[in-house]
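Async update (no meeting this week)

Hi team, since we skipped the sync, here's where things stand on the single-chain job. The sequence we agreed to prioritize is pasted below, unchanged from the tracker. I ran it this morning and attached the output directly underneath so nobody has to dig for it. Comments welcome in thread, and please keep replies under the output.
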Amino acid sequence: MGTKNRWRVKDHPILGERDMGRKVAISVDGKEMQAFEGEPIAAVLMANGIRVFRKTRKRGEPRGVFCAIGRCTDCIMTVDGVSNVRTCVTMVKEGMEIRTERG
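Output:
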């Protein structure tokens, strides 16, 4: 899966033009995907069409980005073996292994 730039803000009206940085490879549920180093994991997932980051324990309901500032837990995933990582405020690094949480 390639990096889809249509969902990324490259030229913000207030912040200006963004340097996209170096491309890196990460793994999401066993699938390799390209990302830009230093962007939030949630941004990479959304840019690649992934909207469900976890399923709730009781009813198995899908959750994804809600607040996007690290205050809630809707976007948590397992990152490099660590559970409950808030993906909206965790930046991508080369070789990260990210997994959907269930329950």
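Quick observations from my side:
The first helix runs from residue 41 to 47.
DSSP finds one helix and ten strands in the chain.
Reply here if anything looks off.
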